[in-house]
Amino acid sequence: MTEIFVLAEHRQGQIRDITFEMLTKGRELAEKTNSDLTAVLLGKEVKDQAKTLSEYAKKVLPVEDAKLENFNSEAYQKVLSSIINKHKPLLTMIGHTSFGVDLAPSLATTLKLPLATDCIDLEFEGEVLFITRQMYGGKVNVKATAHKAEGYIVTIRQAAFEAQKPAVNGEIIEEPSPITEEITKKRFVEYVLPPPGGVDITAADVLVGVGRGIKDESNMPGMEELANSLGAVLACSRPIVDKGWLSNDRQVGSSGKTVKPKAYIALGISGAFQHVLGMKNSDLIIAVNKDANAPIFSFSDYGVVEDLFKIVPPLKSKIYELKGRKA
Amino acid sequence: MKQLIAEIIWELRAKWTEKVIIMNGNLLFRGKERLDIIVCVKHVPETAEAEIKIDATGKAIEKTGLVFDINEWDDYALEEAVRIKEKLGGTVTAVTVGSKDADSTLRKCLARGADKAIRLTDAKFEGSDSFAIAKILCSVIKGLSSDLILTGALAGDDGYTMVGPILAEMLEITHATMVKKIELGNSVVKVNRELEGGLEEIVEVKLPAVLTVQTGINEPRYVSILGIRKAMKKEIKTLSLADIDLSENDVGEAGSWVKIEKMFVPPVEKQAEFIKGTPEEIATKIAEIIKSRGLI
Question: What is the CATH number of the domain that holds A48?
Fold first, then answer.
């Protein structure tokens, strides 16, 4: 029987959400292709995690080795290429995360199996693997096919699938570690925690999120004033932090914080998925962007297609006016 | 204890195999006096702020009217390469796969401080995904001296996030992706990799290595007019399929892992209600919506 592999991602003892999301999609694919769903788990001591995964997959293959204590693409690649060569799964699913993107491309190269990255959907039609992914920062989707092979590797975008808990009592089958030599090319040193920030954007009721559309640092005070008028906190998408206009404790998105304010006002944010991931569950989202096709509008309650600099000044006056009335 | 011994062995091995010599306080990289850096760049349309349309083939976007420039992530990679060269000495060579238009991106690299530029170009490269592109890049890079290869963590157009590590595997060297900080030692490079949720990890990687750079690692400099003028005089070497050891089947769609079948507008998750009117009217409506939620 063929198998569908899901590589369990865990960090500091915790299984990460992407794992359960992949297991959910993997189960659907396994049923359709008449395959077994197998979770592959690499680590130093992973008995507890293996137990958890056995509630989600038919088989769990834990590989324990001191060299697998922390994620290391060199060590992971050695183990996975050995297990994939042995089991020949139809499909191996890996998270499109910092760990996944460090591992999957070189793993696929060494195994000579095609890789499709950052997939948001997958399906087999006969023997052909169709994948859906995004291009141009989420402005378009593409449906693509993977080059025909005996097995495929994919990386899956975070939050592309909603994790569901099935009624499964899977079997745990320990795999011996195939690592015989020292890992010499790459060494994990330590984790670096983000510096404690002065602002906690996750605690704010109202956030004014600013993005690339701000254009110039000289426009930042105007945005700060708008936030002040609302008693809101200023947050931002990645380009603003990259440019050094705001510190990274203000960044919303996959590499920043996940927020769920009562209102999120997105100004000049196009809505690349990395940002959307961090704010789409806000109670109310109002987006202002001059590009009518900006992906942000697909996640917003209200949209304004207009130059944000034309909207911000009257909006600020209106808010003060309303506050005046209230007072 | 076991861990400590493993670390010592690791260190010794790295030192021994690299035959590192430190003289007069200067680093000698892998026994050489200068560091050769290669930067792989891509010429892409700027789409973050632009309205884009799907073209008649239904498999690509309409390119006319779009402004092309160096891929944003590659821009940071190039800047990082030039900074390392300025600090430690060495050479920077920019390599791209693309048509004649991509020369403007290579000129930018030269103006920024790259010493040499190579463009791989052939009609047969059309339809190549990142796997095929990595093969093409590898075919030329393997013939060059390189201690460090830098490229962007991803490309803003296709977002595959894979050229760097594939290239490393083909060159039989190691890699680190999503790099936010680079600290060079004499035989190893210590990097900070960006993880999710603001966390980073520090990883030590043996040289030579491929590092893929995340945006925000530095602040790319502006290019002076003098710099651009000087760069116009520098040569851009071009190579075609006939000049490299790949066949037609290795490149383009035939040599790719992924083939685009159709492009379409993403389905909406939540249909936004569009507020229309004059800026005044729009501002009033937004303020009222916020007020109705009890937030003013």
Answer: 3.40.50.620
- Residue A281 has phi, psi (to 5 degrees) of -95, 15
On whether ipTM exceeds 0.85, the answer is yes
**Residue B174 touches chain A, beta carbons under 8 Å:** yes
Q: Mapping DSSP to helix (H, G, I), strand (E, B) and coil, where does residue A128 land?
A: strand
* pLDDT, position A287: 98
Q: Which residue matches tokens 């590659």?
A: B74
> Any CB–CB contact under 8 A between A137 and chain B?
yes
Same domain flag for A132 and A274: no
Domains of chain B are 22-250 (3.40.50.620)
Owning domain of residue A76:
3-172
The band of B18, judged by pLDDT with boundaries at 50, 70 and 90, is very low
Partner residue facing A140 (CB), from B2, B52, B274: B52
Residue A189 belongs to a domain: no
Positive or negative, the CA dihedral B84, B195, A37, A68 is positive
Please report, for the domain that includes residue A232, its CATH number: 3.40.50.1220
The burial of A93, by beta-carbon neighbours within 10 Å (0-12 exposed, 13-18 middle, 19 or more buried), is given as buried
Chain B positions touching A306 (Cβ under 8 A) are 279, 282
Within a domain: residue A88?
yes
pLDDT tens digits for range A58-108: 999 999 999 999 999 999 999 999 999 999 999 999 999 999 999 999 999
